[in-house]
Specification:
It is built from eleven helices and ten strands. By secondary structure, the protein is α+β, with helices and mostly antiparallel strands. The strands form two sheets. An eight-stranded mixed β-sheet has the order 3-4-5-6-7-8-10-9, with helices on both faces. A hairpin with a 2-residue loop joins strand 5 and strand 6. The protein is globular and about 65 Å long.
Length: 302
C-alpha cells in the first residue's frame, strides 16, 4: 500500500485552488470534474468551471501556484479530501486533534500528536519499512514534507499511534476516501480507508497490524457510522494483504500497475457494513479485566 501514491488522489488541489480564487473576490460558483492533480500530469481528463459575478476575472497571485506552493509533490500523495464544507487553502500548522483511544489485547491506539514527529520520521525514513509501504521506489522524507503531509491528512482522518507493551511501534489512521475511482463506484456512500505501518520490523508477522486494523474497523462502523471500507495494498506486500484479511476485509479486485518496479498489480480490499454486522464478534475488545488486555497508556502490516 502506498500512502504517497499520486495517482490515487484526485480532487486535492481543487480544495486549495478554488479557495485561492475565492480570495480574489466575486467568485460566484465553482465546479470540478475529473482529476485536477492528474490533469497537471496529462494523465486524465480535466474540466474545471469557475464563474465570476463580475464583468472581468479579478487579477492577483496565480491561485494554481499558490496551491502548489502549499502542497509539495510528496505531500500530495497521502492526503485526503478536505473535510466537507471546509474552506481549505491555508497551510496546516498542527495535526487535527481528537480524544479517542482504542485498546485491544496487545495494542493500544492513542491519538497522534505534535509530540510524535520523531516516531513519524523514524517510520517513514526506515528503508526496510519504506520498501513495503511504498508501491514505487522509496526515498527519505524530510521532516518538513512529513509535517505538511500528515497535518493535511489529519484534517480528514482520525490518526493514531500504535503502542505495544508501552512502546510506540507504528502509526495508522481512518480516513475519508480520496481515490476518485472508488468514490465514483460508490456514489453517495460514506467510504473510508485505513492506512497502517508497523515501524519496528522485529514485530512484523506477530498479528499486531491485524489487531490494530480490527480496532479501526470497529471504530469505523460503530462510532463513525460508515457504509464501507476500501483499503489498498501493493502486490509485493503479502503481509499487508493478510493483515487486512485477518481483520475481515476481502479482495474486491486486482488492480494492474504496469511499469511498477516492485509488482505490476495491487489489491483493493473491502468490507461493507452488512459484512461487518455478520462478523461483529471478531472486532469486540477483550472484557474489562482480561489479563491479556493492555491498559490505557500501554503502548503495519501484520
Amino acid at each position: 500500500m502506498s500512502r504517497f501514491d499520486l495517482g490515487a488522489h484526485c480532487n486535492l488541489l481543487v480544495s486549495h485552488v478554488v479557495p485561492e480564487y475565492a480570495r480574489l473576490g466575486t467568485l460566484a460558483w465553482a465546479h470540478a470534474q475529473g482529476s485536477l492533480v492528474l490533469g497537471y500530469t496529462d494523465e486524465s481528463d480535466l474540466d474545471v468551471i469557475l464563474v465570476w459575478d463580475a464583468p472581468d476575472v479579478p487579477t492577483g497571485r496565480d491561485p494554481v501556484a499558490a496551491g502548489l506552493d502549499e502542497l509539495t509533490d510528496d505531500a500530495l500523495g497521502g492526503l485526503g479530501e478536505c473535510p466537507r464544507g471546509a474552506a481549505g487553502g491555508a497551510p496546516m500548522s498542527a495535526l487535527r486533534s481528537h480524544d479517542i483511544t482504542l485498546a485491544g489485547e496487545r495494542v493500544v491506539l492513542r491519538p497522534m500528536t505534535e509530540r510524535d514527529w520523531p516516531l513519524i520520521e523514524s517510520i517513514n525514513n526506515n528503508p526496510e519499512v519504506g520498501y513495503f509501504s511504498e508501491a514505487d521506489e522509496w526515498t527519505p522524507y524530510p521532516l518538513e514534507k512529513l509535517q505538511r503531509t500528515y497535518r493535511s491528512i489529519s484534517q480528514n482522518a482520525l490518526m493514531f499511534v500504535i503502542e505495544h507493551r508501552g512502546e510506540p511501534v507504528g502509526e495508522c489512521w481512518l480516513q475519508r476516501m480520496n481515490a476518485q475511482r472508488i468514490l465514483d463506484e460508490f456514489p453517495g456512500r460514506d467510504v473510508r480507508r485505513i492506512d497502517i505501518a508497523i515501524g519496528a520490523p522485529r514485530l512484523w508477522g506477530k498479528g499486531l497490524g491485524s489487531e490494530a486494523i480490527r480496532l479501526l474497523v470497529r471504530l469505523a462502523f460503530e462510532r463513525e457510522g460508515v457504509d464501507l471500507l476500501v483499503c489498498f495494498c501493493s502486490g509485493h506486500n503479502p503481509r499487508s494483504r493478510r493483515a487486512f484479511e485477518n481483520a475481515g476485509l476481502s479482495v474486491r479486485r486486482t488492480v494492474p500497475r504496469p511499469g511498477s518496479p516492485k509488482a505490476d498489480f495491487s489489491y483493493d480490499l473491502i468490507v461493507t457494513r452488512e459484512q461487518y454486522e455478520r462478523t461483529r464478534e471478531l472486532h469486540r475488545p477483550p472484557p474489562t479485566g482480561d489479563p491479556g488486555s493492555c491498559a490505557p497508556g500501554c503502548r503495519s502490516c501484520a
